[in-house]
């Protein structure tokens, strides 16, 4: 018997880099919003010995995969180590800023904890273990909109809703390395070429704007950095806004975009144009994937 688990993605509706800690980690302020599409699918089959991983992208099953680390750390913390074969079907593009690997790890951790019986971890212990795998992993355990601070580990659920919009997630065929993006941001900050958003706008309340104003005000500090290196991405954002999106912003360090449309017809036309240029598009309405056929 096998079981399928779906791992959704997240988008950053707001992302400001507000500082660098002594250990080199960057502190952020961000609004994370979970979406059901694009998604990865994990097919689990119990039995045999140890943890075995296969993937639709064979390169991801080799070496130090985050799913292998999640299994091993959970087993080390609890003593619960069932024989388990996992096949990962990748639907979330790599290097897109959508948190695919973190979502996969959180999905596996939730499943393991649900099967561990009296060895199961408390919610706080599971969150600490998740954080040891990556800053975004704890968010996917609860998978609700959250205001995120620190290095991404401090989560405050917020009543944000995009149900009034058709959400379009656009995934260009461009890979942006997150470590490079942070390094380049630091270089440009030292040169005075970028500044944190909170220094640019006094008394700016991103949570309030995003939750309660129309259109919501979206922001990503990485755009100034990434668009210089990848001007094609700037062109894609312009195309989306020209397609009558109410708002659009790059997610994470890129290369994906999240766009909000009041009109499903405009969303469909924009998606059709983007797909004709080779960019993957995913539509969501009221928390569910929808087809966007122009």
Q: What characteristics describe this protein?
A:
alpha+beta; 12 strands; 7-stranded mixed sheet; 294 residues; 29% strand; 10 helices; globular; 5-stranded antiparallel sheet
Our Rg estimate from Cα atoms comes to: 19 Å
H/E series:
EEEHEHHHEEEHHHEHHEEHEE
What percent of residues are in strands? 25-35%
- Residue ranges: pLDDT <50 for 5 or more in a row? none
User: CA-to-CA gap between the ends?
Assistant: 40 Å
**Number of alpha- plus pi-helical segments:** 10
The proportion of residues forming helix, as a percent range, comes to 25-40%
Computed structural class: alpha+beta
Average pLDDT across residues? 91
- How many strands, what sense, and barrel or not for the largest sheet? 7 strands, mixed
Total DSSP E strands: 12
- Envelope shape: globular
Ordered list of secondary-structure elements with their pairings:
Layout: E1 2-20, E2 26-46, E3 51-55, H1 66-78, E4 84-89, H2 100-115, H3 123-133, H4 137-142, E5 146-149, E6 154-157, E7 166-171, H5 178-190, H6 197-200, H7 206-212, E8 219-220, H8 222-229, H9 231-242, E9 247-250, E10 257-261, H10 264-276, E11 280-285, E12 288-290
Parallel strand pairs: 1-8, 3-4
Antiparallel strand pairs: 1-2, 2-4, 2-5, 5-6, 7-10, 7-11, 9-10, 11-12
């Amino acid at each position: 018997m096998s079981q399928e688990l779906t791992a959704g993605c997240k988008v950053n509706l707001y992302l400001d880099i507000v500082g660098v800690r002594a250990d080199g980690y960057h502190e952020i302020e961000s609004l994370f919003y979970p979406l059901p599409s694009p998604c990865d699918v994990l097919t689990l089959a119990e039995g045999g010995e140890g943890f075995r991983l296969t993937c639709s992208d064979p390169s991801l099953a080799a070496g130090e995969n985050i799913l292998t680390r999640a299994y091993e750390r959970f087993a080390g913390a609890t003593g619960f180590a069932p024989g388990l074969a996992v096949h990962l079907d990748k639907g979330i593009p790599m290097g897109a800023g959508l948190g695919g690997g973190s979502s996969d790890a959180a999905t596996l951790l939730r499943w393991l904890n649900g099967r561990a019986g009296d060895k199961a971890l408390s919610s706080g212990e599971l969150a600490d273990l998740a954080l040891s795998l990556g800053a975004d992993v704890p968010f996917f355990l609860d998978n609700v909109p959250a205001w995120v601070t620190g290095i991404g580990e401090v989560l405050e659920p917020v009543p944000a809703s995009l149900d009034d919009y058709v959400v379009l997630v656009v995934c260009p065929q461009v890979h942006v390395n997150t470590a490079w993006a942070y390094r380049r941001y630091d270089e440009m900050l030292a040169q005075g070429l970028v500044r944190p958003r909170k220094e640019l706008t006094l008394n700016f309340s991103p949570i309030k704007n995003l939750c309660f104003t129309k259109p919501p005000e979206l922001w990503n500090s990485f755009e100034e950095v990434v668009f210089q290196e990848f001007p094609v991405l700037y062109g894609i954002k312009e195309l989306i806004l020209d397609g009558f999106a109410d708002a659009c912003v790059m997610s994470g360090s890129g290369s994906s975009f999240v766009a909000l449309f009041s009109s499903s017809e405009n969303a469909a036309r924009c998606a059709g144009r983007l797909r004709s240029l080779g960019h993957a598009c995913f539509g969501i309405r009221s928390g569910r994937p929808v087809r966007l056929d122009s």
